Amino acid sequence: MSAWTDDLWVLPSRSEAPVPALLVARLAARLVTPWAPLARRLGGWALGLVLPALLLGLWWLAAERRWVPEQLLPAPALVAQTLHELWDAGDLQAHLGYSAARVGWSLLIGGAAGLLLGFGMGLSRGLRAYLYPSFSVLAQFPVLGWVPLLIIFAGIDEALKISAISIAVGVPVTVNALKGIANIPPPLLEVARVHGFSRWQALRQVVLPAAAPSLFTGLRQAVMQAWLSLVFVELLASSEGIGYLIVWGRQLSQPDLVVAGMLVIAAVGVLLDMALRAAEARLQRWRRSPF
User: Fold this and answer.
1) 127 and 121 Cβ atoms separated by less than 8 Å
2) What is the pLDDT along the chain (291 residues), one digit of tens a residue?
3) Quick one: which of 100, 97, 110, 105 has its CA closest to 221?
């Protein structure tokens, strides 16, 4: 008995999958679809870890083959041991505590001054005409340029460190506060004027919500500038803190301690940036939710 090759009851078409296969494919698609964003995110993380993994491998190989003297390039195992010893002894937590306190006070002082200055120049054209030219000139000076002058007036103690970091914090906060107010759409201010809002009501219900994204950008930049400036100031003159830990390692000719301090600084900076990114994403989600 023979059958035609195009008889679907005898030989199904290759282009058409059997019904069970289609059901399995659809079920798999339903199961995979909700996890697709997570998979893409994990894929992005994996790609971002390729270069650090290669650098770590090159570091381990250079230390293992003694391409660079051990006095200049410690092995990764030695650095990991140093970090473990610092943590067990409590020295790492103590130095991080000193650095965090300096950053906190500087954010409070520099951020408050930057908000006042930025809002003042943004809400008052006269004040902006008087202050903005001078501010734009002074803002060009890096923290390094302020240190000699600050040493004369504040010495080399905590006042120097907090003053220098506060200057680094105040500049981005002021600039972004001014930009946020300047970019408020005029119709919003006109609506507040039509409804007879007082200055406080207009500030609370119109200005602050409209300028919130720019203010948060300024805060994010301020935190990163504070952390970078902190390390520089502690390298310059300090007896505690993560920057001092690096200086101490250099003075003792212990490169493992220097590298350990550098890794801690990088890790804290990455964690701060991730936390601020997550907070910014929540803020943007909140702003979109009413629409």
Assistant:
1) yes
2) 444 444 444 444 444 444 555 565 565 556 555 555 655 665 556 777 778 788 888 888 888 888 877 778 888 888 899 999 889 988 889 989 999 899 999 999 999 999 999 988 988 888 888 888 888 888 888 888 888 888 888 887 888 889 999 999 999 999 999 988 888 887 777 777 777 777 777 777 777 787 888 888 888 889 888 988 888 888 877 778 888 888 888 888 888 898 998 899 888 888 888 888 888 777 766 554 433
3) 110
Letter string b/e over residues 167-203, b meaning 16 or more CB atoms within 10 A of that residue's CB: bbbbbbbbbbbbbbbeebeeeeeeebeeeebeeeebb
CA 74 to chain centre: 29
Residue 200's SS3 state is helix
Residue 190 CA to residue 197 CA, distance in Å, equals: 10
Second CATH level (architecture) for the domain 79-288: Orthogonal Bundle (1.10)
* Rg from Cα positions in the chain: 29
Cα 227 to Cα 265: distance, rounded to the nearest angstrom:
9
CA dist 165 and 218 (Å) reads 15
Domain range list for the chain: 79-288
Closest CA to 76 of 89, 95, 61: 61
Q: Any idea which residue has 């409590």 for tokens?
A: 90
Q: How far apart are CA 111 and CA 118, in angstroms?
A: 10
Residue 287 in contact with residue 213, Cβ under 8 Å?
Answer: yes
